[in-house]
Amino acid sequence: MTYQNYTLEQLQQIDAAHHLHPFTDHKDLRDAGSRVITHAKGPFIYDAAGNEILDGMAGLWCVAIGYGRDELADAAYAQMKELPYYNSFFRCSTPTPILLSQKLAEIAPSNMNQVFYGSSGSEANDTALRLVRWYWALEGKPRKNRVISRHMAYHGSTITGASLGGMQGMHDQLGGAVPNIAHVMMPYAYELAQPGESDHDFGLRAARAVEDEILRVGADNVAAFIGEPIQGAGGVKIPPASYWPEIQRICRQYDVLLMLDEVITGYGRTGDWFAAQSMGIEADTITTAKALTSGYQPLSALFVSDRVAATIVEKGGEFYHGYTYSGHPVACAVALKNIEIIEREGMIERVRDETGPYLAKALKERIEGHDLVGEVRSFGFLGAIEIVRDKATRQRFQPGGSAAVLIRDHAIANGMMLRATGDTMILSPPLIWTKETIDMACDRIVKALDLAK
Ligand code: PLP
Questions:
Q1: Beta strands 416-417 and 146-150: pairing type?
Q2: Which ipTM did the prediction report?
Q3: Which residues, in sequence order, are CB contacts of 18 under 8 Å at separation 6+?
């Protein structure tokens, strides 16, 4: 690497001149300059200005096993030397996607034994949509092609991902979304429960918004419901316990397929391999990516249920779909090693039994009492902090979540990487965080909150 030959200012100038970033206001970037992250180790990232920052977001929800794992680099290196690339099109295959598929079938919910690879969560959701629509066409119901999603869902950034998602800002820029996708209310009790409504009742009401939509357009026209078990980018919205069982009932009653998006929740974050297992959901497709390789390589895996796979295999003939990098041998080698490490180090059990409950307690005891905090919530290693002007009335700051952005900036300046979405601060740590790391994070979050008062 030769970046050391450049000053930080030079890197920022080149970046602003030539690099279009995702989800970035470029005028703002040109004024402020980007934060250039140069290296990372364990739970910490380091920027070019020399700051050490505790990474509360695991990169972008992906670095489950932490940074600087030589074993993953070694797995990639060995695979690159032996076979850097070959595809799995046209009746070819390579060993690492074969073995990874076997491993994934072992850890996935028991009705999931087939997997389709891409490079990103967006690609996986695109594939999932194609598969479910094709499934119904093969079952003789081509009109059963509508999909129901939720407001503030995030399913990726391609036209399909953004259309499946329920982010208004993204829809406004699409110039026309993929048709036949509807969005219904999200299970977000903090803002949407009515006065006096219990969490249980609210969860049922939110689920029944899906049923209302099915009845409105007719079950014969609805292919699937898609949802993140916990809405991540939309603000770590943890549904009441009554929500998913009711969604499952509704999907079964109307023969609507259930598509889970576990791009964030997959591979340990909820204290199981998949949130489907934590929440007892039986899905027809599960989209995964991110922590599959801990972000060390781009890779997504779409699980397909035995029911859907049987129809596609038996009746489908050739599936005219695939990506050059589907089943990329290097990415799959890294995924295999990553899963081995998660298992070997008992990370999932630790999140479930020890560090997840400790994080929940720390957020409740140390953060929720703060004047600027309306609610904290967490599930495993996913957490959220609601920022309010007034705790009692839950009144927010200005529209647009300016207070949360300010707190995020204070947090980063004090060595803590957090994300702000609207008025919600989000936490998605690497699974390697210990109780001591959680204490350190809380110290820094409290400091950032105090500075923003
Ligand atoms: N689905 C969910 C739930 C996500 O959080 C994301 C990305 O954050 C995606 C899909 C899209 O994944 P990618 O950015 O890899 O395309």
A1: unpaired
A2: 0.99
A3: none
> Any idea which residue has 């200012």 for tokens?
9
For the entire predicted model, the pTM comes to 0.97
The tens digit of pLDDT for each residue in 70-99 reads: 999 999 999 999 999 999 999 999 999 999
Residue 149 CA, ligand 1 centroid: distance in Å: 15
User: How far is residue 40's CA from residue 67's CA, in Å, rounded to a whole number?
Assistant: 6
All domains of the chain, ordered by start, with CATH?
35-65+346-452 (3.90.1150.10), 72-344 (3.40.640.10)
Helices 402-413 and 435-452, packing angle to 10 deg: 120
First CA to last CA distance, the chain: 42
**Which ligand 1 atom minimizes the distance to the CA of 125?**
10
Q: Report whether 97 contacts 88 (CB < 8 A).
A: yes
CB-count exposure of residue 113 (10 Å: 0-12, 13-18, 19+): middle
CB 12 within 8 A of CB 33: yes
32, two tokens: 């402020």
- Centre of ligand 1 from the C-alpha of residue 170, in Å: 14
Q: Which contiguous run of DSSP H or E holds residue 349?
A: helix 347-350
Q: What residues are in contact with ligand 1 under a 6 Å CB criterion?
A: 120-122, 125, 154-157, 161, 228, 232-233, 261, 263-264, 289
C-alpha of residue 158 to centroid of ligand 1, in Å: 10
* Predicted confidence (pLDDT) per residue in 175-232, tens digit: 999 999 999 999 999 999 999 999 999 999 999 999 999 999 999 999 999 999 999 9
Contacts of residue 44, Cβ cutoff 8 Å, sequence gap at least 6: 52, 53, 54, 55, 67
Q: How far is the CA of 154 from the centre of ligand 1 (A)?
A: 7
Q: Is 47 helix (H, G, I), strand (E, B) or coil?
A: strand
pLDDT tens digits, 298-338: 999 999 999 999 999 999 999 999 999 999 999 999 999 99
Q: Can you tell me the mean pLDDT for 102-129?
A: 98
d(CA 309, ligand 1 centre) in Å: 23
CA distance 295 to 364: 30
Helix, strand, coil % (nearest 5) of the chain?
45, 15, 40
pLDDT more than 90, % of the chain: 95
Q: Are the CB atoms for 391 and 413 separated by under 8 Å?
A: no
- Candidate from 23, 285, 290, 419 with most ligand 1 atoms within 8 A of CB, to mutate: 290
- Ligand 1: atom nearest CA of 120 is 15
| Helix, coil or strand: residue 99 | helix
